Amino acid sequence: MKIAVIGAVAAGTSAAAKARRTNKDAEIVIFEKGRDISYAGCGLPYYISGVTPSRYNVVMNTAQDFEEKYKVDVRLEHEVTEIDSDEKILYYQNLVNGKEGGYEFDKLIIATGAAPIKPPFEGIDLENIFTLRSVESADQIKDAVKRDDVKRAVIIGAGLIGLEMAESFSELGMDVTVIELEDQVLPPFSKEMAGLVEDHLKEKGVELILGDGVDHFEGEGKVAKVVTGSGREIEADLALLSIGVKANSKLAEAAGIEVGDTGAIKVNEKLETNIKGIYAVGDCAESKDLLTNKDVWVPLGSTANKQGRTAGENAAGGEAKHYGILKTGITKVFDLTVAKTGLDLEEAEAEGINAAAVKVKAHNHASYYPGTDDIHLRGIFDRKNGVIVGAEVIGGDGSDKRIDVLAAAIYNRMTANELFQVDLAYAPPFSGPKDAVAILGMVAEKKL
Amino acid sequence: MKIAVIGAVAAGTSAAAKARRTNKDAEIVIFEKGRDISYAGCGLPYYISGVTPSRYNVVMNTAQDFEEKYKVDVRLEHEVTEIDSDEKILYYQNLVNGKEGGYEFDKLIIATGAAPIKPPFEGIDLENIFTLRSVESADQIKDAVKRDDVKRAVIIGAGLIGLEMAESFSELGMDVTVIELEDQVLPPFSKEMAGLVEDHLKEKGVELILGDGVDHFEGEGKVAKVVTGSGREIEADLALLSIGVKANSKLAEAAGIEVGDTGAIKVNEKLETNIKGIYAVGDCAESKDLLTNKDVWVPLGSTANKQGRTAGENAAGGEAKHYGILKTGITKVFDLTVAKTGLDLEEAEAEGINAAAVKVKAHNHASYYPGTDDIHLRGIFDRKNGVIVGAEVIGGDGSDKRIDVLAAAIYNRMTANELFQVDLAYAPPFSGPKDAVAILGMVAEKKL
C-alpha cells in the first residue's frame, strides 16, 4: 500500500502520522513545496512578537525527526504539479534542482492548505508589504522589522489574524493602525460584541479605521503610505494584508476532484473526495456545519488536525469519520479573549429558526478572589424549544472555558434550562456558585 | 402569602431572593441563628490566608442591604426551635434577649446547612482546636493565629477544605502537617490521581501522615500536641478538624419531615419535602445523582445556590425544577487544580457498568506559548457504548475548563468518539489543536 500526502503542515502531517499508526507496513510519502514541515501557523504572531522566542518553537518537527519517528518519506521543496486521478499517479518538480518525477499511489491525501488573498492593488509589490502564512513569511516580517526599524505598521483586515498581529506589532513598540472594510472589527461577530473588542483595541493604543478599505499603496521602493478608498492617507513603514485566505484547490480541481461553492474541495464524513481513494483535509477542504448540515469552509488548525487524523486512518485501511464543525474560533486580543461558536443570529434566522439573542455580563470567578474579570456572553437561542444554537464570549481569563462549555452545549442541543442544570465545577478561584454559563441559561430562560 | 426561610447563607438567601423576584407581594421572613448572612463559605480559606483581604469581601450582603434590596425581613440571631408542620407555625428564640415567638407561614424553606463533625476526642476542648464553617469560626482562627504566633498547624482530614487550609496556613508561614485516616489524600479521588496531589503537597513543604487518625489531643489550656492512633506525636500550636460535615436535619426530622439514609432531608425535583409546601435546600438537603438516579448528599455551594433558587421560585408560586447533580467538585491546592465529576470506577461498577478508566497527560495549551503546564485527565467510560460517566482532572491552569467540558459531556452522555468530534476552541494561548479533552476521547476510543 502506497499513501501519498501533498502538504506537510497541520493536516498533512496529522494524516501521515495517523496513517502510520494505523498501518505499519504502508509506504508513506509526503510532498511539501516549502522548506518547513509541521509548523504551528497559529503561533506565528507570537513568534513575530517574541512571546514565543525561537523559530525552533513553532516548527514542531524537522523533516528528519518526522521521518524517523513515523517512518515516512518527507520530500521538502517538492511541488506537486499534477494529479492523474485515473492512473493514480502524481507528478512533481523538485524545486531545488528542477527535476521532475512521478509517484504512483494507492491512496492520496490532499492537504495543500490555503493562501492569503492579495488583490492587485496599485503598489502591492512595494517592499515591506506582507501577508502572513508560512514560517518563511514570518521570518520576512521579523527581518523587515529589525532591518528597517519599523515604527508604524498598518494592518489591512480586522479578522483574527489581523487583530493578533495588532497585538504582536504593539508589543514590538510600533504604532499600529488597523483598516477594515466592514464597519466593525471581527465581521463574523455581532456588532455589540465586536464593540467591546474595538474599545479594548483603542485603550491599547491601536488606531481603527472602519468602513474603509485600501485603495493603493505609495512609496519609493518601500511602502511609505497606505491610501484608503475614502482618500485617507496613513503613513506606514510596514503593511500587513490579512483580508482572508483562499483554498489551494486548483491542483485538485484540474484532476477532476469536485470543488464546492466555497472554493474548497468537497469531502464526505470520511474526508474522501468524489474520487475514491483520494482524500482532502485541512485548509483546502470543506467541512460540514453540524448545525445546518451544510458544506462550509472554515479553515482552522483544530479542524485541520482532526481531518488529517481521520483521513490518515481511512487511507491506511481504517474506518473513521469526522462529523463536522461548529465553526468554533477563539483568539486573544491583548487582554481580551474573543471567541465564537455555532450560528450567529443572521445564520440562525436564515435556517428558519425563530432566534433570540441573549446577552449577559458575568464574572470569571468569585469577586473576592484576586483576578476577577468580566465575561460577556451572548447566546443565540431557538425560541421554539429554548435550544442554544450559537454563542459569543468576550472577556478576561476564563472566557475560553465558557466558549468550550457552550460548544459542548450546542453540540448536544442543550436548552437554556439545561445550561442552568448542568453541574459545573465551583470554587472561588474558578467560577461563581452560579457559573457564567448558568447565568446565561437563567436569563435566556426568562427572556424566551 | 407568607414565606419563611430558615437559614441565611447561600441556599437560604438564594431562595429568598428568587421568591421575591417571583412574587412581588409575598411576605418573606428569614430566620438566621448566626450574626452574618449570605457569606461565602467557600471563600473562608482565602479570608484566613489574607488572599481575600477583608471580612467585608466574604460577607456578600449585610442583613440591611439584603432587606432593602429584596424587601425581605431578616431576623439575625433568631434560632428556630420547632416546626409545627400541621399548623404551619415555626417557633423561634431570639438569642440576644431570650424571647420566644412563633411565625405562621404558608410556605417554608429549610436551609439549615451542615455542621462540622467534631468527635469526642480526649482533649478536643483545648484552646486552638478549630473547625471551619462560619465567618465567625474563620475569625476565631485568624485571631488565634495572630495572638499566639502560630508556627505549627496540624490539619485533620485531607478533603477539599483540609487541603485548602493546608495552602492557607502555609501562606501564613506555618509548618503544616495533614493527617488523613485513609491511605491517600482526597479519598473520593482515585489513588493514582490523588498521588499527584500528594507529591505536590510534599513539594510545597506540607507533611502528610496517611492511614492514621487522631487518638487524642494534649496540652495545658491550649493544644500542644496531636497524638495519632499509631502513637505518633505531632507538636501543634493549632489544630483544625476538617473530617467532614453532617446535615442539620434534626429540626426537620422532629417535625415529621423525612430524612434520607444520607442523614439529609429528602426532597423531590421541586425541592419539596414529604410535606407539601415545605422545601429543603442546600447543605441540609439531598439531591439526585443524575447518573444513578439515586438520592445523594454532596453539600456544595453551587448546588446550594441552584436548589435555593429553585425552591424560592416554587414557594412563591412558580414552577421550577432542579434535576440533580453530577457531584462535580473542584479545588485549588497550591498550584494544582484538582477536580472531579460524575462516577468513579467503583461507583460505575456498583451500577453494573462494565467500566474502564483511561488516563492521559496533555498540555493546557500550545507548548510554544508561555505558561504551558501539564493536565492529567482520567475518564471513566462504559465499555458497552463508549459513554463517559466520570472524570478527574488534575493539573495547572486550564484544568477547570476541562472538568467543565467533561461535566457537560457526562450530562449529555457523550461517547469517547464525541469527545474527539466536539469542536472546541483552539488558539495557542488556550489549548492545543487537539484539546486535552479530545486526546482523552481518542485514547479512550482506542482502548475500549
From TrEMBL, chains A, B:
GO molecular function: oxidoreductase activity
Cofactor field: FAD
Domain FAD/NAD(P)-binding: 1-295
Pfam family, one: Pyr_redox_2
InterPro entries from the UniProt entry: FAD-bd_OxRdtase, FAD/NAD-bd_sf, FAD/NAD-binding_dom, FAD/NAD-linked_Rdtase_dimer_sf, Pyr_nucl-diS_OxRdtase_dimer
Positions of the Pyridine nucleotide-disulphide oxidoreductase dimerisation domain: 331-431
Keywords recorded for this protein, A-Z: FAD, Flavoprotein, Oxidoreductase, Redox-active center
Similarity comment: family membership: Belongs to the class-III pyridine nucleotide-disulfide oxidoreductase family.
The protein's name in its UniProt record: NADPH-dependent 2,4-dienoyl-CoA reductase, sulfur reductase
Native species: Halanaerobium congolense
Taxon lineage: Bacteria, Bacillati, Bacillota, Clostridia, Halanaerobiales
